[in-house]
Design goal:
By secondary structure, the protein is of the alpha/beta class. It folds into two domains: 2-99, 60s Ribosomal Protein L30, Chain: A (2-Layer Sandwich); 105-263, Alpha/beta knot, CATH 3.40.1280.10. Helices cover 39% and strands 21% of the residues. The chain has eleven helices and twelve strands. It has helices spanning 9-19, 21-27, 35-43, 58-67, 79-85, 105-110, 125-138, 155-161, 176-185, 223-226, 246-263; strands at residues 2-4, 29-33, 50-54, 73-77, 94-99, 115-119, 142-146, 170-174, 189-193, 199-200, 210-214, 231-234. A seven-stranded parallel beta sheet has the order 8-7-6-11-9-12-10, with helices on both faces. Helix 3 (35-43) packs parallel to helix 4 (58-67), helix 7 packs parallel to helix 8 and helix 7 packs parallel to helix 11 (246-263). The model has no long low-confidence stretch (mean pLDDT 93).
């Protein structure tokens, strides 16, 4: 373990990775914050490049050693400096840099997926991370975000995913029209979640190969997209409630997919 100051080159790089998506793209590296995410990285074979801990924090250092990473570079940083770098309101005791997880568009569709979740123009990082977490929990094959959506390696997305970013293929900056076209080519039904959908989601046959589309937090799915989908589906709500949060709506339908498939042994 080596003690470093906040002016150290690696610490400056760490700060840039947390704040600049362009730098993350250039270096193909992102940052995870906290022991839980570090454990998830280890459990899924994603070995950190550099690990930063607060100077003198022996408990956290001992936890890292238990994880058994193969010769990680561990750096000690003054606790105040570590707090100033992190992106969380309640600073985490450890930060680590991790190589980006490379999943290609061809890889996702080449595997003949039976259950996809597609975020179109999802701007809120908390929603994006929750969509990733929900999709993984419900057994989806992959998550795809369109051009105009938040960077999938944004620190808030990573935190909201609760480590699920390591457990399901996630693709960012996809062309949504190409995604729809490829789904139809593979006979994957494309279902758009919208408050004005004509079909109750629970009445849909969700055991067939499907792709669930959810739109921007304020605008939803645009009519130009909805017109190209197999069907528009909605979640019945009490009078006076206009809509649900994008991630909440997707979560409800994702677990209906899971329920129907378990019931029919699909």
């Amino acid at each position: 373990m080596v003690a470093v100051s906040k002016s150290n080159r690696r610490v400056r790089e760490l700060r840039k990775l947390l704040r600049k998506s362009s730098y993350r793209d250039t270096t193909k590296t992102f940052v995870i914050e906290g022991l839980n995410l570090l454990r998830e990285a280890g459990a899924t074979g994603n070995v950190p490049i550099d690990i930063f801990v607060a100077e003198g924090d022996r408990d956290t250092t001992a936890e890292i050693e238990i994880l058994g990473f193969d010769h990680p570079r561990i750096w000690e940083l003054e606790a105040e400096a570590l707090r100033s770098i992190g992106s969380t309101q309640n600073p985490q005791p450890v930060l680590a840099t991790v190589p980006m997880i490379e999943h290609s568009y061809d890889e996702v569709f080449g595997s003949l997926p039976g259950f996809l979740t597609i975020g179109v123009g999802v701007n809120d990082p908390g929603n994006a991370g929750t969509i990733i977490r929900t999709a993984a929990a419900a057994g989806a094959d992959a998550v795809v975000f369109s051009h105009g959506s938040v960077d999938i390696y944004n620190p808030k997305v990573i935190r909201a995913s609760a480590g699920s970013i390591f457990r399901i293929p996630v693709i960012g900056s996809a062309d949504v029209l190409s995604v729809i076209q490829e789904c139809h080519k593979q006979k994957i039904a494309t279902l758009g979640l919208t408050g004005k959908g004509e079909i109750d989601y629970s009445a849909c046959d969700l055991t067939q190969p499907i792709a669930l589309f959810v739109g921007n937090e304020s605008r939803g799915l645009e009519s130009s997209i909805l017109g190209k989908l197999t069907a528009d589906v909605s979640i019945p709500m009490e009078a006076g409630v206009e809509s649900l949060n994008a991630a909440v709506a997707l979560s409800i339908v994702c677990f209906e997919v899971s329920r129907q498939r378990a019931l029919n042994d699909v």
